């Protein structure tokens, strides 16, 4: 049985400057922790979640104050339950794990669905763009509140891997180990196009109203379509086929004219419908915008990979980089590029290719393929 957990909130009343020039009049970051911080405060692990994930990575959390109906039952159990706990990859007998919800998020952190204290209204369309470096700066403030100077490790799968890379290069003296999973060094043209399709799906929903839909009917069709576009890159097509064959076409799967004609369409439509109950369209846009614009060099103001990683070498960082051979979202070539830059910069690194038929979501579904390597890195 999962141990019960609860969301905690860190609030900074100071003006929070953003990379692109805007600022927020103070921020709140929702987070959860597992394990115990030692007296030296040297056993902390910072975990960054994936695109549509949350700070609730392990345990049972049945409610988060202030987020309405978004906290659906499917979210009550942590998304990395198989990797966090006593004797697991992130071993809470020895480590203190902290996972924040992203700035711009919809699960308790300051975001578009929050109230702008300067106007008394929802931020909505006026909530600014956020970058990976903004997420790093927010997380650093959270760590400061614990008195944590240097992390045992920063860990990130998928989009979380982009932010963990930026944390390690932006604040190299604050992290000992970097565990980067199924991510990349910069966003590829293919992903930029796939993400742009999702942006258009949401923007063209008439209920989106430019982002000012709170208190009205939300852009459910646009967000569902965006999720359907992305879902086929997260799950290997063979897995989609196997899962869809177990589904029955629903009678309500009728559009304006077209009637859903097979289980595969019905399965994907179900994924879209399920997603809109638990996520916010504005948050989705902010995070995929962050992803679309991501380039590790830009986030840390470096001209070359060698300049970017030189401080990591000087700090004695050790990197563990995972590829998934069936990944259609962050292709293995992207991790190979990252590892080449690390090797050229003489940063100690290990590159593990996981052989899986699960696609990008392998890191969520197959803990046995990752646990021995992570446990070794954090020995």
The count of helical stretches stands at: 12
CATH class of the largest domain: Alpha Beta
Report the average pLDDT across residues: 95
CATH superfamily of the largest domain, please?
A: Alpha/Beta hydrolase fold, catalytic domain
- CATH topology-level fold name of the largest domain: Rossmann fold
Please report which band the strand proportion falls in: under 5%, 5-15%, 15-25%, 25-35%, 35-45% or over 45%: 15-25%
Q: Topology as H/E string?
A: EEEEEEEEHEHEHHHHHHHEHEHH
User: Would you count the extended β strands for me?
Assistant: 12
Tell me the radius of gyration. 20 Å
Q: Describe the largest sheet.
A: 8 strands, mixed
Category by helix and strand content? alpha/beta
Given the C-alpha coordinates, what overall shape results? globular
Stretches where pLDDT falls below 50 for ≥5 residues?
A: none
CATH architecture type of the largest domain = 3-Layer(aba) Sandwich
Query: What is the count of structural domains?
Result: 2
Helix-residue proportion: 25-40%
N-to-C terminal Cα separation, in Å?
27 Å
Short description:
47% of the residues are buried. The chain has helices spanning 132-146, 159-170, 189-203, 220-234, 237-244, 263-276, 281-292, 296-299, 305-314, 332-344, 362-365, 371-377; strands at 8-12, 16-17, 23-24, 27-34, 44-47, 84-85, 90-91, 96-100, 151-157, 175-181, 318-324, 348-354.
